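Troubleshooting: if your tokenizer reports a length mismatch, compare your output against this known-good record of 243 residues.
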Amino acid sequence: MTATPLPFQILVISLRRSLDRRAKVEQEMQQISLPWAFLDAVDGSALQSPPAEYKAFKVKCLQGYELTPNEIGCYLSHKEAWKRCVEKNTPTLILEDDFVLAPEFGRVIQTLLSNPDTWSFVRLQGLYEVSYEEVALIDGVRLVKNMGDAVGATAYLLKPEVAHTLVHESSDIYEPVDHFLEHQKKHGLEFLAVRPYPVDITRAKSTIDDRDERAPVQGLRKRLRSVARALDRAFSKRPWFPR
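Known-good structure output:
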């Protein structure tokens, strides 16, 4: 790690016990001259009980399924990173420990930091390919607005004011963190992305999040979910799925 002062911080979310992943992170970060630190992830599989933010019965009613322990731990880990961003009052690059940096990664970050008025939150990786509209081209770095949900939370850069909103809107945890980041109607934030993405993933099985592809909620369960969401919108001051 380098002590070179920069106007931002890098936090790499990783389980303390994931020694192989941490070794790969250290190797990957040798490619760039930027300061960074591990943030010990919350081990969802070791949680003795769900956190106060997670209300299992309501989640099952409004989602049609419950989150896995590691999905909850993953969300809590990102929430802690947002809190660190607010506490330090500095832009923060958040990485999960399965990232792979593209050769242009360092240049992209320096360009974004040199043009802070052009962004507040920037996605640097996405799991799904979605269409997009170009917003700005800055020194060869293309800032865009994704027109669909790219999901994934392996790499993103955000400012403290955005982190503050994300923490505030996470008083209840009821969806995977990458879905929450895309949930604009909930948090009201507009996010941009850099395309092509300067970060990819290793495709190794996550040790932070154990989510597999879920079957779609269908039939009676879907109808009951719709009723539960309508009731939540009608009677809750902060509905989970606002129109």
